[in-house]
Design brief:
The chain is α+β, with helices and mostly antiparallel strands. The protein has 2 domains: 205 residues, 2-Layer Sandwich (Ribosomal Protein S5, domain 2); 174 residues, GHMP kinase, C-terminal domain (Alpha-Beta Plaits, 2-Layer Sandwich). Strands 1, 2, 3, 4, 5, 6, 7 and 12 form an 8-stranded mixed beta sheet that branches. A hairpin with a 7-residue loop joins strand 9 and strand 10. It is globular. Bound molecules: alpha-D-galactopyranose. The site of alpha-D-galactopyranose has 12 residues, from helix 6.
Length: 393
């Protein structure tokens, strides 16, 4: 059964009725621009074919009930309870099961963002084929699907950027993960055959044709299956280092520094902070260079930028793990045009841009390299830039 059918079946199982509609939103991979979003910099992600589905229907009362194929039992709260439940202080576990905080947090943030939402309850059933914990934004896909459903059921007419901001707020203040806006924007603005260039300071966006299909290229995702969580640990520390670096440079965010500022940065800060800052500043430049190169010379010319991005994350930002490095190195040694880890790091997935005729060879080589190195088997599959949210039924 597809995830769409799973969402419908779960809805019927929980409520005894058919849903009024089914809405979905995609996961994403980031082509380039990592840990730049919360520094108000540039990113270039694209939506992937894997989606999360929300089957939903208005209720006659003011209760919100959420069910998921990932959880044993539905969670139900009153609309009035949302303001008591959220915001959750950063680093504190939400008062509802974490999986439900994504959906309930969206309901909460949407009511705050758009005036005139009716205090009308809703039943929601969620199912997904976005791999969880792989760095492919399964959480942004839930947020986007639920936001799209509520937007229509509550007649709000909010635009894609508003819904992305709602999703981010849910993630930050309901789930407690201190993430940036990239994932939600990537999911909400997905277009076939195009990546979305996002200026995370102004939230201006531009669809950038990737030309992958025309050039006979595929994007291979190599999910290491090393699990990560951004509500804890390294992600938060990296964010703090960037804020420290910006403060030492006397600027509101690292967006306001360029490669010319690096010599001064080196004098102002300790080695670790400097390397974190150098990653962000050079990564912003690489995003701009990638957009220009894609447009002027096509996707086969961006390989070196992807490889440089990975090296910067491995050596300066220190968010790679041996499994990610192995995936990247193996893909490159077998003929990939470029490869890099994607997403927040500390596990998750790497991507490789590969000629169509080499997909099988490269996938096999990566699949074999993992057990040879004593690592658990990776999950390797292809993706292509795909649609944003939609109503499926
Ligand atoms: C995670 C976060 C994003 C972004 C990336 C790193 O995916 O959710 O906001 O910071 O990590 O680029």
């Amino acid at each position: 059964m597809s995830a769409l059918d799973d969402a419908r079946a779960l809805f019927t199982h929980v409520t005894g009725r058919d849903p009024e509609g089914i809405w979905s939103a995609p996961g994403r991979v980031n082509l380039i621009g990592e840990h730049t979003d919360y520094n108000e910099g540039f990113v270039l992600p694209f939506a992937i074919p894997h989606r999360t589905f929300a089957a939903a229907q208005l209720r006659d009362d003011d209760r919100i009930r959420v069910a998921s194929t990932f959880a044993e039992a539905p969670v139900e709260v009153g609309i009035d309870d949302l303001d008591r439940l959220f915001p959750t202080a950063t680093g504190v576990e939400p008062a509802v099961p974490e999986w439900s905080a994504y959906a309930l947090g969206v309901a909460w943030a949407l009511r705050l963002a758009v005036t005139g939402a009716p205090a009308r309850g809703v039943d929601i059933a969620i199912a997904s084929d976005v791999p969880v914990g792989a760095g492919l934004s399964s959480s942004a896909a839930i947020e986007g699907a639920v936001a799209s459903a509520l937007n229509e059921l509550w007649n709000l007419d909010a635009d894609a950027v508003t819904l992305a901001q709602v999703g981010r707020r849910a993630e930050n203040e309901a789930v407690g993960a201190p993430t940036g806006i990239m994932d939600q924007m990537a999911s909400m603005l997905g277009r076939p055959d195009a990546a979305t260039f996002i200026d995370c300071l102004t939230l201006e966006t531009r669809s950038v044709p990737t030309g992958f299909t025309a050039e006979g290229l595929e994007v291979l995702v190599m999910d290491t299956r090393v699990k990560h969580a951004h509500s804890t640990g390294g992600y938060r520390e990296r964010r703090e280092a960037c804020e420290r670096g910006a403060a030492l440079l006397g600027i509101p965010s690292l967006r306001h520094a360029g490669v010319d500022d690096l010599p001064r940065a080196a004098e102002l800060m300790d080695d670790v902070t400097f390397r974190r800052v150098r990653h962000v500043i050079t990564e912003n430049q690489r995003v701009l260079d990638t957009v220009r190169t894609l447009t002027e010379s096509g996707p086969r010319a961006i390989g070196d930028l992807l490889v440089a991005s990975h090296a910067s994350m491995r050596d300066d930002f220190e968010i790679s793990v041996p499994e990610l490095d192995l995936a990247v190195e193996t893909a490159l040694s077998q003929g990939a045009v470029g490869a890099r880890m994607t997403g927040g790091g500390f596990g998750g997935a790497a991507i490789a841009l590969v000629p169509q005729e080499d997909v099988g060879k490269i996938a096999d080589a990566v699949t074999k390299a993992f057990p040879d190195a004593g690592f658990a088997a990776p999950h390797v599959f292809t993706v292509h830039p795909s649609d944003g949210p939609r109503r499926d039924a």
